[in-house]
């Protein structure tokens, strides 16, 4: 068994590299010097107990929050991501748990929500429909009968699929998924996990926030464990058992992995 950290594969440059990231809310230090690397073609599972700092880290990556300190590198360049638009412009999209879909709109309009294609001053329905269909096809999504179906008629798994398709419609490079299977049954979970794997296999970098260790073991390449605002380990998913990930999440260390007991950030 290997210990501690995952090194870059074949000298591949990380798409996203965070170094020494800090964030406080008032007197509370929520992120205490996070180092994280995410690679194209890989699913990085971000795990941690409630309150460990996962959402805060992701919101900082996505420009909803601005980090207080540290370095944010994207494609090897230091960048300043101070708004969601700045993150989108880099190719970073987040699918939050609430999905933010409009029930009264169809799949096409949900996928283009706020970024509608126009021809003059009218919406270009034909182009939007074609692009929506192409994107769903590229994701091998076959469970949607029509892109003109209202999302209110879709199952939980189909809604998740539409939200993910919306995220990849914009030449995304990094897609962040916040608990995508939390509300799903067994079959739909399987479908969504297949889609998550597919995103990475088609060349995107994926960050998957999850409390479900089976999901993590099934689709993740690496596991980044947060404990009380510190990233205590980044390990290859195939190198750890579910029990060891749980130990990292709940205690910030794993004796068997040879991680230090003082919970220092490894790297
Ligand atoms: N806007 C805020 N103001 C003050 N404290 C906050 C704010 N957002 C988060 N926190 C605190 O930061 C800590 C980390 O919260 P965060 O939501 O990032 O954790 P999490 O790992 O995503 O948890 P969960 O799994 O429950 O979603 C918590 O102690 C939380 O109370």
UniProtKB/TrEMBL annotation:
A Pfam family: ABC_tran
Lineage: Bacteria, Bacillati, Actinomycetota, Actinomycetes, Propionibacteriales
ABC transporter domain mapped to chain residues: 16-253
CDD domains: ABC_Carb_Monos_I
UniProt xrefs under InterPro entries: AAA+_ATPase, ABC_carbohydrate_import_ATPase, ABC_transporter-like_ATP-bd, P-loop_NTPase
Single GO molecular function: ATP hydrolysis activity
Protein name per its UniProtKB record: D-xylose transport system ATP-binding protein
Keywords noted in UniProt: ATP-binding, Nucleotide-binding
């Amino acid at each position: 068994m290997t210990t501690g950290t995952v090194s870059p594969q074949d000298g591949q440059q990380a798409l996203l590299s965070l170094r020494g990231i800090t964030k406080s809310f008032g007197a509370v230090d929520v992120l205490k010097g996070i180092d994280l690397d995410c690679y194209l073609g890989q699913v990085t599972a971000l795990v941690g107990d409630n309150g460990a700092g996962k959402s805060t880290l992701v919101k900082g990556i996505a420009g909803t929050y601005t980090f207080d300190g540290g370095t944010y590198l994207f494609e090897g360049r230091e960048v300043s991501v101070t708004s969601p638009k700045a993150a989108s412009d880099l190719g970073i999209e987040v699918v939050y748990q609430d999905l933010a879909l409009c029930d009264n709109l169809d799949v096409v309009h949900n996928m283009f929500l706020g970024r509608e294609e126009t021809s003059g001053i009218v919406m270009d329905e034909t182009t939007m429909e074609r692009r929506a269909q192409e994107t769903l096809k590229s994701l091998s999504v076959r469970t949607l009968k029509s892109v003109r179906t209202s999302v209110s008629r879709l199952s939980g798994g189909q809604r998740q699929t539409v939200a993910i398709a919306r995220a990849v419609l914009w030449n995304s490079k990094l897609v962040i998924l916040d608990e995508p299977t939390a509300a799903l049954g067994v079959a739909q979970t399987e479908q969504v996990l297949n889609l998550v794997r597919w995103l990475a296999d088609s060349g995107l970098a994926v960050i998957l926030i999850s409390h479900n260790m089976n999901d993590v073991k099934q689709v993740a390449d690496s596991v980044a464990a947060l404990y009380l605002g510190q990233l205590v380990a980044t390990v290859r998913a195939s190198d750890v058992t579910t029990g060891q990930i749980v130990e990292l999440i709940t205690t910030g260390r794993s004796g068997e992995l040879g991680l230090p007991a003082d919970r220092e950030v490894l790297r």
